[in-house]
Every structure is written in structure tokens, then in C-alpha cells.
Design goal:
single chain; alpha/beta; five-stranded parallel beta sheet; 31% helix; 16% strand; disordered C terminus
Length: 544
């Protein structure tokens, strides 16, 4: 295949969103192909092969809601491991017969829109070029790894791996001297998994991770899941659309200080014991907007962490008296035994605010105090250029010939968090200015995916060959995203929620933080009004 000019739709990326799009679009009668840079399905789970990789949403919602899939699939753990998720994708592949329409090991490198034919020209690293009518980018929020700019990093003579590009065959760190730079979600999982088996572990921490208990109950029984499938599954899947973050529990409709101190304590204790994201997204409605309420959450958390960490100096670094940032203003991580690792005698914790890294040498990492931390392995748990980076790393040129990455450097702009004005016939689920960081993958894949499929079917039914968001609608959407975001405490932390984790990146809201019910209502309002906010074109005629 060197050229496909009759292709209706090209989907890029074979994670939850890409798989769902391929299946739904084929069922709707479109000719569709999918390009995937990796060698298999799974999206981020194909690449996240590091030790301890595990999803932070429980199995009840971290799967497709299609009965033809869930009725014959049973999970082993409440929070599935990376291996179990890969097995699930393999099952989905066989059940839906997906691979026949997927080109693996095919990375899209660039794309440009032809205003005469109203088609995209899409180029790949394999030399394959396709010309689809529509382009659906299912590249996810974490497809562009972020590497630290540290002098001498390339001189290190030991093994060095970023958590997003771990060796496919695995890498045994047993008995080795290991350093981990970064304590975000992947750092937490690597640390708690490898801490008990390494000879020595040195953790380089910039910001304490305010992680909460996962409470991964297991193993799950087939009998219990069979019982749930009789009635509970459809209810839980529908419930996703009714709560702020798509979980089956929701934020409480009351403020923190409407409760007595005793009631607050019992609430915190209950949420903590149940585990998962409940501690934040099952708590009072003002903890993300009111500093005093947020501080109450931190105070309880700090006491619980101190009870698990014995050394006073470790306590100070991991859970300091002064709150490092508002609770949940950075992505919450779930942990299983993270804090216990710091009780081991073979573990050092370097606070990079007090003692920054000066350079990496062939033998290890040197800090400002003059100490050379000698290492056999250096793990880079340094995250991603999130949300925008997944798309902007592809050289996508719109009607004015400007690359989308260059366009967004001047300020992020989308419409409905799924389209960009000036880049017609292009959609992206689970991307910037959508609920992405506040909604799990399968949920966003289906909510946004169904909207995209319905939109494309509408265009076909009404003989529209082109759809493009208007500038006015885009500006209004951006303002709405900013206004809602500014009501919270999000700007009080340097995080990938705003792009502040990427040196030189413009700091701005990258997520829609108004909750799923509001988001669903807004995108459906546009659809019900004949896709208001878009310019629809049939031949030479345009309709606003």
C-alpha cells in the first residue's frame, strides 16, 4: 500500500480511543484504517512496560462498555496490571477482528490538508502515504516523553531507561544500585516495585508526591463478576456520564466546614480506607476551590503518611509541615507500598530543592553537595509533554500551511476539546481542553468517540465534505475553559495540567475542569443544533 485515495477515515493510535473509533466507524459503514507506531495494541499500555506499571482506575470502569466484550471477560485484579491490560487488548482484538485494518510499526510523521480535494495527505516513517477524507488523532495525552536537560546525561555508562521506553524484554534490577529521577505516577510505581529487590535505591525528588492508597483488593473471582454482569455492569457504565470524573462515586454536594471536625475526620477515614481517587473525588465539593478546605485534606493525609514513615528526616521530605501545593492541584497518584520503601536502610531520598543535580557522570549522579551517587541503573521517571505534545510532535499543517505545534505556541486553541479551527476534517478524542486528565481513557474514548462517529455520519447524510470550527466558537470555548479552570486551585502548582512541567512551554489550562456532565451537555448542544460552532461545506456551499 503506497497510496489510498478513496479512504474515508484514517485513525492514528491503537489505544482505547483508536480501537473504539475503528470498531464504531467500521460498523457505521465507513472505509477506515488505523496506523499505530508500536508493534501491538494498547496505546500507552504498549509502551508503559516499566516495573510495577498498573492502571489507577478500577476494572469496573476501565474497560469498554460494549456487552459483546465484557460478557466474556473477567479481570484478575481490581486495579489491573499492565500485563493484564495487554491481555485485554488482545482479547478485544480477536473479538472485534481489528488487526486486519491496522498497520503496526507505522508512525505518522506529517500531514497537510488539501483545500481543493478536502482531503488530508498523511505521511509515515515507512514511506506509506494515504489521503483520507477525515483524520482522527487518537494519540492520547502522554505520547511524547519528556527527558531532563541535565549536563552529562549522555555520558552515563550504566543502563538508563525512561519509563515510557522500557525494554520490551524487561530489565532485571535485582541487586543493582538504582537511581530514580522523578516521583510522579510512574516514579511511585517503579520505586515501590523495585525498592525491595535492589542493592541500593537513590530517589531524586523535586516535589513530594501526595499519593493516596490504591487499596488493590484481589484476586477477583469469576463468580463475583458474573453476578455483577447480571445487573450492575450496565448501571455502572451509564453512571460514568453522571459524575464529575466518570467514576461510580461522585463529589459530595456539601462544603467542608458545613461538617463538624468529628464528621470530617470520619469522612476522611472512610474515603482513605476505601482507597482510590475517592479521597479527592468522593469528598466535599469545595476542596478544589477553597484553600482552607484543601488544607484540611492535606493535614489528614500528612498524619497518615507520618504514621507509615519512621525516620523524621524522611517524614519532613515526604510530607512537610508546609503544604507544597494544593492537594490534587497535581495529578493524584495511587500507591500500594510507596511510603514503606523509605523505611529501608538501603534507600536515600535527595530533595532536589535543597540539593539539586549538578551533572551526570559516567558513574552516576553528582549533586550540589559534592556527593557522587554511584549507580548501575538510572531510571528517568520524568513524565511527558502532555496533552498538546502528543499531537504537536506530528507536523500537521492546516489550511494556512502553519504547523499545529507552531500555532499552539501562541496559545492553545480548540473547539470542544476535539477540533481546531483551520484544521478541517480533523478530530482528536482524549486530548487538550477536554476532560482528559479528569476522566479515564475508556470513558473519554466512548463519550467523545460516539460524538465523532455521529458527527461524521451526519456529514455523510447531509452531503457535507468539510467541517471546520469557526474562530469565534473556538475563542468562546477557550475562554470557557480558562474561566472554569480559574475557579480552582490548579494554578497553584507546577504540573502537566498547565504545561508547567515542560521548560519553555506556555503555561495555560490544558484540561476542561468543569466535569463530565457539563462537558457532555456542551458537546451535545452543538450536535443538536446541527453542529453549531462549525462551518459545514458541501461542494462550494458553506453553512454556519
Amino acid at each position: 500500500m503506497t497510496s489510498r485515495r478513496s479512504l474515508d477515515i484514517l485513525v492514528v493510535g491503537a489505544g482505547f480511543s483508536g480501537v473504539y473509533q475503528l470498531h464504531k466507524l467500521r460498523k457505521a459503514g465507513f472505509s477506515v484504517k488505523l496506523f499505530e507506531a508500536g508493534s501491538g495494541l494498547g496505546g500507552i499500555w504498549h509502551w508503559n512496560r516499566y516495573p510495577g506499571a498498573r492502571v489507577d482506575s478500577d476494572f469496573l470502569i476501565y474497560q469498554f462498555s460494549l456487552e459483546e466484550l465484557w460478557k466474556d471477560w473477567n479481570w484478575r485484579e481490581k486495579f489491573p496490571s499492565r500485563q493484564e491490560l495487554i491481555e485485554y487488548f488482545s482479547y478485544v482484538d480477536k473479538k472485534l477482528d481489528l488487526s486486519c485494518d491496522i498497520s503496526f510499526n507505522t508512525r505518522v510523521t506529517s500531514a497537510s490538508f488539501n483545500t481543493t480535494t478536502n482531503r488530508w495527505s498523511v505521511f509515515t516513517n515507512t514511506g506509506v502515504t494515504v489521503h483520507p477524507h477525515f483524520l482522527v488523532l487518537c494519540t492520547g495525552f502522554a505520547a511524547k516523553p519528556l527527558y531532563p536537560d541535565i549536563p552529562g546525561l549522555d555520558t552515563f555508562q550504566g543502563a538508563m531507561h525512561h519509563t515510557s521506553s522500557w525494554p520490551e524484554s524487561g530489565f532485571d534490577m535485582t541487586g543493582k544500585r538504582v537511581g530514580v529521577i522523578g516521583t510522579g505516577a510512574s516514579g511511585v510505581q517503579v520505586i515501590q516495585e523495585t525498592g525491595p529487590i535492589v542493592a541500593h535505591l537513590t530517589i531524586f525528588q523535586r516535589t513530594p508526591n501526595l499519593a493516596v492508597p490504591m487499596v488493590n483488593q484481589g484476586p477477583l473471582t469469576t463468580a463475583a463478576q458474573t453476578k455483577m454482569k447480571e445487573e450492575m455492569y450496565p448501571i455502572l457504565f451509564k453512571r460514568r456520564e453522571q459524575t464529575f470524573t466518570g467514576f461510580h462515586y461522585d463529589i459530595l454536594p456539601r462544603d467542608m466546614f458545613d461538617m463538624s471536625a468529628e464528621e470530617r475526620y470520619l469522612l476522611f477515614d472512610d474515603l482513605w480506607t476505601k482507597g482510590g481517587f475517592r479521597y479527592v473525588f468522593g469528598s466535599c465539593k469545595d476542596i478544589l476551590t477553597n484553600e482552607k478546605a484543601n488544607a484540611e485534606v492535606y493535614t489528614f493525609w500528612r498524619k497518615r503518611v507520618h504514621a507509615r514513615v519512621r525516620d523524621p528526616e524522611m517524614q519532613r521530605k515526604l510530607a512537610p509541615e508546609k503544604q507544597p501545593h494544593p492537594f490534587a492541584a497535581k495529578r493524584i497518584s495511587l500507591e500500594q507500598s510507596y511510603f514503606e520503601v523509605f523505611n529501608q536502610p538501603n534507600v536515600d531520598l535527595v530533595d532536589l530543592n535543597e540539593n539539586p543535580i549538578i551533572e551526570v557522570t559516567p558513574k552516576g549522579v553528582k549533586t550540589r553537595d559534592g556527593v557522587l551517587h554511584e549507580l548501575d541503573v538510572l531510571v528517568l521517571a520524568t513524565g511527558f509533554d502532555a496533552l498538546t505534545g502528543s499531537i504537536s510532535q506530528i507536523d500537521i499543517k492546516g489550511t494556512d500551511g502553519i504547523s499545529i505545534g507552531d500555532r499552539w505556541k501562541k496559545g492553545l486553541s480548540t473547539y470542544l476539546g476535539m477540533t481546531v479551527s483551520g484544521y478541517p476534517n480533523m478530530f482528536f478524542p482524549y486530548g487538550p481542553q477536554a476532560p482528559t486528565a479528569f476522566c479515564n481513557g475508556p470513558t473519554c474514548a466512548e463519550i467523545q468517540g460516539d460524538w465523532i462517529v455521529d458527527c461524521l455520519a451526519y456529514l455523510r447524510e447531509h452531503n457535507h465534505t468539510r467541517i471546520d470550527a469557526t474562530r469565534e466558537a473556538s475563542e468562546a470555548w477557550v475562554q470557557q475553559v480558562v474561566d472554569i479552570f480559574s475557579q480552582g486551585l490548579w494554578n497553584r502548582a507546577k504540573s502537566w495540567y498547565t504545561g508547567a512541567n515542560v521548560p519553555g512551554k506556555r503555561i495555560e489550562p490544558l484540561n476542561f475542569t468543569g466535569g463530565l456532565p457539563l462537558y457532555i451537555n456542551l458537546i451535545q448542544e452543538s450536535a443538536r443544533a446541527g453542529y453549531a460552532g462549525f462551518r459545514l461545506t458541501s461542494g462550494t456551499k458553506a453553512r454556519l
